[in-house]
Amino acid sequence: MKTPRIPLFRFLMVWLLGATIASAADQQLLVAMLPKAKGNAYFLSCKEGADRAAAELGVELLFDGPTETNAAKQNEIVENWITYGVDVIAVAAENKEGLSTALRRAQRDGIPVVTYDADALPDARSFFVNQATPQGIGYKLMDEAARICGEEGEFAIITATLTAANQREWQRHVEARLAERYPKMKLVAVRPSDDLKDRAQSEATALMSAHPNLKLLMALCSPAVPGAAEAVKQSGKTGKVKVIGLGLPSENRRYVHEGVTEGVVLWNTVDLGYLAIQTAVGVARGTLKPGATTFDAGDLGQVEVAGDNVLLGEPFLFTADNIDDFDF
């Protein structure tokens, strides 16, 4: 049994950890939410939904993470939360294997764990809030790339890091779809961007120089999509080298309208953050248990539960025709 928390101690610890409190009052549950990088626009949009869910459910939300992607820092934050005694943890794991040890310890100490966006090892959490199946994402990206390229030619991938579990899984399905459907297309390189737009821009510029016949850049992390698009634009290759990827509409709107970026594949990130907190609280309160096939997720209604995955839905393609309809 966890030692009861003292409200003043909670306030001081939260302040020292640099986290954000969703409610000033001492609520029934303290939910800790860990992004890969707390300054990343993708995760800030997740936090918007998380804040809304926390307010609806009457819980206290701590939102903290590394300033940049850093697996070791994620471990440190989880260890601090275990010592403090939060009630439940929702985490987007930068390194699946590396973070799972700390998450297992949290569970042994009576703190339920759910993951969102990027999974940990299955025994280190109760449920994974899955924004879309890895296969659905990989296939959607590859099918769009093939359509844009006329099903032939060279393309390259820019990812966040070579160790990011979700990105490795998406890439695996991209390559599987490529091998299955598109024999005249060739993946010539995969480059990391450290989840930074400037690094993605540099990598994209280098790729276009090294591969003069390159027809498309596929970005697997949100900062890399506008980074690759800016590289194409500055190189004067708009129309010759196309860009697609997983990203936020707000960060890519102008590139889509300029014809640099053909389309952006994603899901509603605000809804992902909302569903992550709904799921975390459901596990903590016992309203979501192993074996469930559906889950009542507040404003999202009944969502599907497939095994230990709580499913947000299928990926969505933002294009010039619809991107202005979305403000995240």
From TrEMBL:
GO terms, molecular function: carbohydrate binding
Signal peptide start-end: 1-24
Keywords for the protein's UniProt record, in alphabetical order: Periplasm, Signal
Gene3D superfamilies: 3.40.50.2300
Cellular compartment(s): Cell envelope
Pfam families given in the database record: Peripla_BP_4 (PF13407)
SUPFAM superfamilies xrefs: Periplasmic binding protein-like I (SSF53822)
Subunit structure of this chain's protein: The complex is composed of two ATP-binding proteins (LsrA), two transmembrane proteins (LsrC and LsrD) and a solute-binding protein (LsrB).
Protein name, UniProt field: Autoinducer 2-binding protein LsrB
